[in-house]
User: What shape does this take?
Amino acid sequence: MEPDVLISVKNLTRLYGKNKLAVKVLDVKDLEIRRGEFIALTGPSGCGKTTLLNLLGALDRPSGGDITFEGKKIFGRGEVSLCRFRREKIGFIFQAYHLIPTLSALKNVMAPAFPLGSGYKRRAMELLRQVGLAGKEGRRPDDLSGGEQQRVAIARALLLEPDLILADEPTGNLDSVNGRGIMDLLKKLNQRGKTVLVATHDQRLAEDCGRVIRLADGSIEEH
Ligand SMILES: Nc1ncnc2c1ncn2[C@@H]1O[C@H](COP(=O)(O)OP(=O)(O)OP(=O)(O)O)[C@@H](O)[C@H]1O
Assistant: This one.
């Protein structure tokens, strides 16, 4: 494997349901993601984008095959190690933000570090500044616009310096101006060296990415 390959996927499958009722919703024979790429994952609703992102980020386990991350298999390890992998290597951004409603923007950004103890406040403040939210650290999600909530979610994803950002329809709940702002932010992160994989229905946003992977019925059509 070449040194700049971050992720290598071989014969990855995911089935839902059991026995005769099992349906294969993902079947990715071969996929490589290199460090520093900015990739759009596209395809019609139900083609398996979320399923693939969840497997790449170890939020879900495959039915067959494995994923190699920095040369090591992800799934050949126990739950504690998997949990650490997720926390240290992956930054997730979701369509619906998934912020904790009772916590301030600052505490939401610090949340991934809760199991690690305190000491992340300065970094969280700096990240909120970088995403354009200086002065709004004390606000709760309800008092922020959708675009602002997604910026908090991006800052949270960056707290522990992940190698890979996985974004599942991050602009899906936003108007086009805010959606463009979020994509510009992801692009900036990529220019600063982060590998970014973003699932999107929006063809115009996809065209802006360095590479497009298209899924159809769970398989990669072209990339
Ligand atoms: N928990 C589940 N149980 C059964 N089937 C599921 C489950 N989750 C997803 N599926 C099915 O797997 C297929 C892929 O779903 P997935 O959410 O990955 O698609 P997607 O491309 O992300 O769709 P969208 O663009 O609408 O978010 C779909 O046919 C979906 O109905």
